[in-house]
């Protein structure tokens, strides 16, 4: 159907061509020598993607698309046939995107021009594509089957992954069957996972997805899993409320083991355990997940009770490592969580091997590039018609926005186009009664509708026309068409709508969305969905030519908070307020004084 992947065969527009490419290549060669690594393929930077013929072709193509309307496009059967993909039961219809088959060809050409195939290969081959941190990006290795070989710096990391998985399996089984007991001899039935950002959002998303899955729920019977992320004392109080330290296991989850909020919360909860069960109780009631085993030990957790992961797993991509696998195996059983890994790996394989034209993450990634960079849509709504996916949007918010919210290309060149989008979302139908007004008649926000064929739960009240799930899904189908087709003034007039109301009741339509359908929501399909979104984000970053795997943008706020922490401690110790000579601007000085004066010492 589409032109094939020419770059995979070493075709036109090979990276590094021309003087610009040669200069960049020299730069990366020097840098490679400086960090003692060979120059990764992906680092052979070229001019910004916006200077390519393929980008310009899409720019010009916008004019043609602007002459179309989804209300007409959606009636074309051949187009609808072409604009849908299915892989391993996951079905995606993108006929409601503002594209034609010609647009798709141009988008796949752009992907080739950006070297997406080479960059994907470099990622799966363990090259240090996170160049600012000189790290490989191998979350895919955390779900690789035992017999796979994935090398980082010449060493196969898959056995390490499986050693940790084996340890998780054994430990979670011992806790679940009561063999591992607490300080007072009681089994540990409740788990509190302390962590923030990537050490929280992914596990919360998966936990929320599985809670009402009948199979998973059986494994969770009599057990509770809670998360403590925010340093806000309110979150501390809520997450410990009603828990008994005697029957609680605490997991400190932190890649670095230095994150201020997590470490303060960990100390607070350690004090809660010690106060009730004595100093030694930490050994039985606290375990850790980290790449920094030295700090785990210093904290007082036995390194034997620590579950490792590696610097080649980014925090926001770590849900398949011990970060998600330990708390979720404790809650649902290891066997259930193994299926989650299998689902993610299935999508990984599809991403790595399928031609672009059949490739779900590549297609969805390219559609996002189209919406952001060519149609000028700055946001994306993630709208699962499934309450169990309530935490998908918050998780993808971090995955996408921390990855692709960048202002410079991978080689430091300032970009002349925006990257990333503002992700938000709520499950349907709740969102319909909240922000959909803006989506229908205000800004144009491409929407991801996600529907499930067979619900985790069945509720059908005798005498009703449809079951609860059917009612939910009626909205899933209707909303996508309402956005695409809209409602014209002519239609409104034919319904005798008064003239004065016609502008208010008109729906312009032509608002893009895509519809993803899963046969059911279980551990396996949750894994597929996770991997789909992760790789879609990577594709966008690969095309925009940025480093999607670092997050320097979160650093400045942390540094300034440390300074405020020192000032606050000083002022509280001395019982003083701010004089203005501390080096803060007048606004911050005033705000701090107001806080210091109001807070009980
Ligand atoms: O502040 C952002 C961040 O660095 C994320 O990237 C990360 O997921 C989170 O903090 C938590 O970090 P850690 O797991 O090291 O505690």
Automatic annotation (TrEMBL):
<dbReference type="InterPro" id="IPR035482">
    <property type="entry name" value="SIS_PGI_2"/>
</dbReference>
<keyword id="KW-0963">Cytoplasm</keyword>
<protein>
    <recommendedName>
        <fullName>Glucose-6-phosphate isomerase</fullName>
        <ecNumber>5.3.1.9</ecNumber>
    </recommendedName>
</protein>
<dbReference type="Pfam" id="PF00342">
    <property type="entry name" value="PGI"/>
</dbReference>
<dbReference type="GO" id="GO:0097367">
    <property type="term" value="F:carbohydrate derivative binding"/>
</dbReference>
<comment type="similarity">
    <text>Belongs to the GPI family.</text>
</comment>
<keyword id="KW-0312">Gluconeogenesis</keyword>
<dbReference type="GO" id="GO:0004347">
    <property type="term" value="F:glucose-6-phosphate isomerase activity"/>
</dbReference>
<dbReference type="GO" id="GO:0006094">
    <property type="term" value="P:gluconeogenesis"/>
</dbReference>
<comment type="pathway">
    <text>Carbohydrate degradation; glycolysis; D-glyceraldehyde 3-phosphate and glycerone phosphate from D-glucose: step 2/4.</text>
</comment>
<dbReference type="InterPro" id="IPR018189">
    <property type="entry name" value="Phosphoglucose_isomerase_CS"/>
</dbReference>
<keyword id="KW-0324">Glycolysis</keyword>
<dbReference type="InterPro" id="IPR023096">
    <property type="entry name" value="G6P_Isomerase_C"/>
</dbReference>
<keyword id="KW-0413">Isomerase</keyword>
<dbReference type="InterPro" id="IPR001672">
    <property type="entry name" value="G6P_Isomerase"/>
</dbReference>
<dbReference type="GO" id="GO:0051156">
    <property type="term" value="P:glucose 6-phosphate metabolic process"/>
</dbReference>
<feature type="region of interest" description="Disordered">
    <location>
        <begin position="1"/>
        <end position="20"/>
    </location>
</feature>
<dbReference type="GO" id="GO:0005829">
    <property type="term" value="C:cytosol"/>
</dbReference>
<dbReference type="GO" id="GO:0006096">
    <property type="term" value="P:glycolytic process"/>
</dbReference>
<dbReference type="InterPro" id="IPR035476">
    <property type="entry name" value="SIS_PGI_1"/>
</dbReference>
<dbReference type="InterPro" id="IPR046348">
    <property type="entry name" value="SIS_dom_sf"/>
</dbReference>
<dbReference type="GO" id="GO:0048029">
    <property type="term" value="F:monosaccharide binding"/>
</dbReference>
């Amino acid at each position: 159907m589409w032109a094939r992947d020419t770059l995979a065969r070493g075709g036109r527009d090979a990276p590094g061509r021309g003087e610009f490419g040669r200069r960049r290549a020299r730069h990366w060669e020097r840098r490679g020598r400086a960090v003692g690594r060979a120059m990764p393929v992906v680092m052979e930077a070229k001019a910004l993607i916006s200077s390519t013929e393929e980008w310009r072709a899409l720019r010009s193509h916008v004019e043609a698309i602007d002459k179309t309307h989804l209300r007409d496009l959606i009636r074309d059967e051949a187009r609808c046939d072409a604009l849908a993909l299915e892989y391993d039961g996951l079905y995606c219809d993108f006929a409601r995107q503002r594209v034609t088959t010609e647009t798709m060809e141009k988008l796949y050409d752009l992907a080739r021009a950006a070297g997406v195939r080479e960059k994907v290969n470099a990622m799966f081959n363990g090259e240090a594509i996170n160049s600012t941190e000189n790290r490989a990006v191998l979350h895919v290795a955390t779900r690789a089957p035992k017999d796979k070989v994935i090398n980082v710096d010449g060493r196969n990391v898959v056995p390490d992954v499986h050693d940790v998985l084996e340890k998780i399996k054994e430990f979670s089984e011992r806790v679940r069957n009561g063999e591992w007991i607490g300080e007072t001899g009681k089994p540990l039935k409740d788990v509190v996972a302390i962590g923030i950002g990537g050490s929280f959002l992914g596990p919360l998303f998966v936990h929320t997805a599985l809670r009402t899955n009948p199979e998973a729920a059986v494994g969770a019977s009599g057990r509770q899993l809670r998360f403590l992320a925010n340093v806000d004392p309110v979150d501390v109080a809520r997450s410990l409320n009603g828990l008994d330290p005697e029957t609680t296991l605490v997991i400190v989850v932190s890649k670095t083991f230095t994150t201020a909020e997590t470490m303060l919360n960990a100390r607070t909860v350690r004090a809660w355990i010690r106060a009730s069960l004595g100093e030694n109780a930490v050994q039985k009631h606290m375990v850790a997940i980290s790449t920094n085993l030295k700090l785990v030990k210093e904290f007082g957790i036995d390194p034997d009770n620590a579950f490792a992961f590696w610097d080649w797993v980014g925090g926001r991509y770590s849900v398949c490592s011990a970060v998600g696998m330990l708390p979720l195996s404790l809650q649902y059983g290891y066997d259930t969580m193994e299926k989650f890994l299998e689902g993610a790996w299935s999508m990984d394989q599809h991403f790595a091997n399928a031609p672009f034209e059949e490739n779900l993450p590549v297609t969805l990634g390219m559609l996002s590039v189209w919406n952001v960079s060519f149609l000028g849509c700055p946001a994306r709504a993630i709208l699962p018609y499934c309450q169990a996916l309530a935490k998908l949007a918050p998780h993808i918010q971090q995955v996408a926005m921390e990855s692709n919210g960048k202002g410079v290309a991978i080689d430091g060149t300032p970009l002349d186009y925006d990257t990333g989008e503002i992700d938000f979302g709520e499950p349907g139908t709740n969102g319909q009664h909240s922000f959909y007004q803006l989506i229908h008649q205000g800004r144009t926000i491409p929407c991801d509708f996600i529907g499930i064929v067979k619900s985790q739960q069945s509720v059908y009240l005798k005498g009703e026309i449809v079951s609860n799930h059917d009612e939910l899904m009626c909205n899933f189908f209707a909303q996508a068409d309402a956005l695409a087709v809209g409602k014209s003034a002519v239609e409104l007039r034919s319904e005798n709508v008064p003239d004065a109301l016609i502008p208010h009741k008109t729906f312009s339509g032509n608002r893009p969305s895509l519809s993803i359908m899963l046969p059911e929501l279980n551990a396996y399909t949750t894994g597929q969905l996770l991997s789909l979104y992760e790789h879609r984000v990577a594709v966008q970053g690969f095309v925009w030519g940025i480093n999607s795997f670092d997050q320097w943008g979160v650093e400045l706020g942390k540094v300034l908070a440390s300074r405020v922490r020192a000032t606050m401690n000083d002022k509280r110790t001395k019982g003083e307020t701010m004089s203005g000579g501390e080096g803060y601007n007048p606004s911050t000085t005033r705000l701090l004084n107001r806080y210091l004066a109001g807070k009980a010492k």
